Amino acid sequence: MKIRNVFLNILFGLFAFIFVISFSIALPIFCRFIHTLCIKPMGIVESLNEYTGLNYTFDDVVEGYNEVLNYCCFYAPFSAGKLLYSESDIPHFRDCRTLFTIDFAFLLIGLIGIIVLKIIEKKKKSFIIYPKTYSVAAWCIIVVPLTIGIFAAINFDIAFDYFHRILFPGKLDYFIDPEINHIILILPESFFMVCAIVIGVSIIACSIALFILSSLKRKKLKKLRTNKD
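Above: the chain's sequence. Below: its structure in token form.
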């Protein structure tokens, strides 16, 4: 019985880790308004028009970004709105779509795993999710991305390059030519840095929530033991 409890607690911690990381990664993808809010402060329309010599508008940029995300998230036909793009660059966005799908799948797996184990805990008194499980999961969730974050903070350009080399092994097509693909011009590195910050904040917030749950669970178990005595 004890071995089963330990195994299920490890499983819960793993599901919590998977859920928080995949949820945090998905957050800037689902929250499209983040890009919209970055357009004016980052001067995306101005730099786009200056580079291309064209006359794109704020709405053109928003539409182009949304169309690309519709392709990556919902398997819609590829489109960049009014933004110029090359057919040769679509495979890169197809790879992005695959990565998004994998992240969404992990998000669903983590969520279902957590729900199932919480239901088991509620129905079977012999199984308890230990307070330590929440706190250990929280520490793991913080330490792993923090290590990556420190590396990125030291040199974001190198970290960004390694990020692509790891996620797109053996492929160099992520170096999209802005002359023939204007989509890349509405996705400056500063925007990805904002996304990284959003992911980091989400991870910290979720970890804090797990620490709080650990504390509440510890108090609850202590109270139950006191009542039994």
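Helices lie at 2-30, 33-39, 44-52, 58-74, 90-123, 131-154, 156-167, 189-228.
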